[in-house]
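Hello,

I think I submitted the zinc ion job twice by accident. Can you confirm which output corresponds to this input? Input:
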Amino acid sequence: MSNLNVKIGLEVHVQITSLKSKLFCSCSSEYRGKPPNTNVCPTCLGLPGALPVVNIEAVKAALMVALALKCTISDVLVFSRKHYFYPDLVKNYQISQYDGIGSVAIARNGLMTINVDGKTKPIRIRRINIEEDPGKIIYPTGSLLTSKYTLIDYNRSGIPLLEIVSEPDLTNPKEARIFIDKLRSILEHIGLVNPELEGSIRVDANISLEGGSRVEVKNISSSKDVERALTYEIIRQSKALEHGEVIRRETRHWDDLKKVTISARVKELEEDYRYFPDPDLPPFKISKELIEETASKLPELPDQRVERFMKTYGLSEYLANVLVSEKGLADYFEDCVKICGEPESIGNIIVNDLKRWIDELDLSIYEAIRLFPQKDLCQLVDLLNKNVINIKILKEIIPRALKSGKSASTIVYEEGYVDISDEDVLLKIIDEVIRENPKAVGDALTNPKAINYLVGQVMRKSKGRANPELTNKLLIKRLNELSRASSNAN
Ligand code: ZN
Ligand code: MN
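Support: Only one job matched these inputs. Its output is below.
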């Protein structure tokens, strides 16, 4: 797959979930969980005569993101109508922004770096738009293809979105996943998006293979699924090209249950949308003061945080990057360090064990923190330092805590996970091992390296609970006694 010439560009739709109201009316932005079609007014229902008014907080949010992504900011804000006919779109046009003749996006020509296998790669940002979310189509008895009828809920109509579009600088599905994760981390650090809310980040992924056409996969809701959908498309398109088929320019849907893409329609061209400036929303100037004011409020961003983690905590670039890839993970790390210090071992445990299990069990970082809070990790590290448990047991307790929801200390004590550091108990096991392995004992008496085998046997008999250092010490003591006894006998 690596020798294919693949170009991937992403269009990420982000709900600005930190806002209180919709983009052009005063309806609440909290549409989730409400009875259908109750969070609406004449404006977001597109009733004749109702006029939109811009939510200035959405403009400030867009400027913040534009600055974080190093974009050039337009000096004028222009909204355009993007026309298409679909039941979720109340006015038959979406109020959006058009970057072309007679109009301009709020920000363009930005840059975001991603870290792929330890290397930094710049990805250009083409533009950022502000636009409104359409309503939501519901398929009560199946999917888009199979449902007998369709329902529509306009509670989401008019929710403020940012559309962030990259240049096609990504060359494989993994880079696409890393790009979205990094972007999400930036948005989280700015405090605009709560990624835990279902549907708050939706991605359209464009992909083309050399010799084919651009195919767009619409509405993918997680970075992992973006990676899966693009991998699926590379295989599908390269097989088709191999068989001499023509790849049409088209839009496809991602079926996140079957994990396949399905052809939806032949892609519209830009001309089909009949963009023109919205006469209900006259252009207004974006002042230098507003940009400066926004810049002064920019918080610490992921790149700066990675630097700080390396400098302040002495972490490797790799550890720092993984931690900061999710704000929740980086916050968790800093909370733990505040409670119990030891940034390096805490960082290693979080990245190598906790994060691994979060991925394997498909949890969100926030779910994981609820199941395995900061104080639990610190308790385990404390038990480790006191030799009550060993590192092997610590590593085993993390998935058990995440799976069972029990607290770490409960697992340690109730389930007999305590490290065996009691000399009498250990000596009993050691004597058994010595009795059962006369040949290995003979080897160990002449060759100190051979003792490792006996330590291994003790670990096995104790089901991994023997304290390794103490086992080693006691074994040497016992072997010395044995060799003294045998030389006395001679
Ligand atoms: Zn409304
Ligand atoms: Mn859009």
